Design the sequence.
């Protein structure tokens, strides 16, 4: 007969297993100009892993087509970012979606506003883009939307909340599936509090928790300032740069462990995976993901 300890996994074992599940069901982000890395990433990740391809300010949206095609051919699920304020015209978006669907089998897209001072075309935000109704015409069956555990540096919380509700309503009316990808944060407590709010107010909305992938502290801090995760960054700076360096080290394991601990303790949790922001280092992020999935000790 097994002892009580042998019969039931320890809390640490359960947390490690949960973390591995979150990464296995998770996703990765890469830049459209890193097509040469696709084969390496595919060799590291499970077949069908979602890989989001950025829509960067310096790139036309069509620039991601070749990378989307390469991801599909490599056995991964290509998910393009579509930044509303960077879309020059409806015709350009139609052309992109037609090619993405036919040539790369794209059925999912991530809608973001895009931090442009002025819209380049018809769409001032992702709600307007969704209301256009264009996605269902070109084979898109599911959209991703952004979540902001620390709020947005330029958008009031009430506006963010109203936009979230509008996206859910419009997606449902159009018969589109929907999921959320959160911004990364340096404050695990803030992230799990946000997840608890999502579970309470939007229990049917699948949530992927954004993690800052393994990168150098200087790079991570630069992206953090751009991405608006200022609240936790300011709190860390108030504690001195030593605290900043401690949290912005090159391993996101502490953040993942906090999410896994939250998931294990909340049966109503609607977190279904994590999303790795790679900051141009998609191969390094994929290697980290593989290590967690294999139980390689990446989680602390």
Sequence:
């Amino acid at each position: 007969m097994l002892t009580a300890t042998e019969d039931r996994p320890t809390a640490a074992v359960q947390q490690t297993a949960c973390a591995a599940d979150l990464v296995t069901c998770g996703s990765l982000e890469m830049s459209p100009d890193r097509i040469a890395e696709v084969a390496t990433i595919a060799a590291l990740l499970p077949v069908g892993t979602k890989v989001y391809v950025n829509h960067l300010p310096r790139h036309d949206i069509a620039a991601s087509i070749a990378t989307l095609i390469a991801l599909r051919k490599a056995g991964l699920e290509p998910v393009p970012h579509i930044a509303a304020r960077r879309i020059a015209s409806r015709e350009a978006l139609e052309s992109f979606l037609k090619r993405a669907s036919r040539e790369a089998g794209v059925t999912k897209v991530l809608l973001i506003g895009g931090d442009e001072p002025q819209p380049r075309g018809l769409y001032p935000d992702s709600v307007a883009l969704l209301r256009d109704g264009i996605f269902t015409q070109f084979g898109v069956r599911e959209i991703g939307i952004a979540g902001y555990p620390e709020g947005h540096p330029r958008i009031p919380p009430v506006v963010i909340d109203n936009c979230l509700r509008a996206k859910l309503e419009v997606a449902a009316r159009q018969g589109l599936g929907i999921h959320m990808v959160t911004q990364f944060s340096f404050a695990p407590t803030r992230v799990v509090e946000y997840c608890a709010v999502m579970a309470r107010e939007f229990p049917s909305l699948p949530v992927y928790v954004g993690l800052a992938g393994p990168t150098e502290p200087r790079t991570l801090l630069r992206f953090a300032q751009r991405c608006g995760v200022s609240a936790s960054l300011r709190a860390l700076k108030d504690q001195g740069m030593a605290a900043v360096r401690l949290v912005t080290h090159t391993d996101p394991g502490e953040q993942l462990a906090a999410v896994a601990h939250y998931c294990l303790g909340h049966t109503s949790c609607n977190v279904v995976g994590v999303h790795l922001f790679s900051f141009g280092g998609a191969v390094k992020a994929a290697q980290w993901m593989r290590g967690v999935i294999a139980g390689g000790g990446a989680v602390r």
